[in-house]
Specification:
The protein is an alpha/beta fold and 187 residues long. It is 30% helix and 26% strand.
């Protein structure tokens, strides 16, 4: 279980949350730009310390560097590496990611040569292959068309059904509709 009872922000408080999240839960974090969705995800992941309160995975504070929380945020790529090389570096089942995200024709392509949607699919293929009890993902639908957004939603639902707690920061009504619960920030 993930227990979040904290105020979050960088220098000033953006908001506070008191909530428990459970294995198998898929929850959308929504709210206007600047309300702290990404900051809350970074706080839950232990990358930022809460301004007050705590975030616990089981009995362990996430700020202690605990494993079990995976944060998928802004894509980071080495532009001269190929899609296949990125997938290999991710430590996942490369063939599964290629099949699942339809990357067959892109495996040998360098990242700089891809469209933004193709790069996002390659990134999601690499990142969603990582297994963790808690998955935090920041606007994964960016650059995806409707069909790939629907595929992403189904994949996140599958990951939750497999037992992970999945929190998704999003502005997409389509993604929100695919989540079992919604936490609205900044209201």
């Amino acid at each position: 279980m993930l227990s979040v009872n904290c105020a979050y922000g960088h220098d000033a408080e953006l908001g506070s949350v008191s909530r428990e999240f459970h294995p198998g839960e898929l929850c959308a974090l929504t709210g206007p730009n600047g309300c702290g969705k990404s900051t809350l995800l970074s706080t839950i992941a232990g990358e930022l310390s809460p301004l007050r309160g705590e975030v616990l995975l089981g009995e362990t504070p996430t700020s202690s560097g605990t494993t079990g929380v995976a944060l998928i945020a802004e894509p980071v790529f080495l532009p001269d590496l190929t899609v296949g090389e990125h997938l290999s570096l991710a430590g996942i089942d490369r063939d599964e990611a290629v099949e699942e995200w339809a990357l067959h024709n892109l495996v040998a392509a360098p990242l700089w040569s891809l469209s933004s949607g193709q790069r996002q699919r390659a990134y999601l293929g690499a990142q969603l292959g990582v297994r963790a009890p808690v998955l935090l993902i920041d606007e994964p639908e960016r650059h995806l068309d409707e069909d790939w957004t629907d595929f992403l939603i189904a994949r996140l639902q599958d990951i939750a059904r497999e037992g992970a707690c999945v929190l998704v920061a999003t502005h997409s009504p389509r993604v929100v509709a695919g989540c079992g619960d919604v936490l609205r920030l900044g209201e």
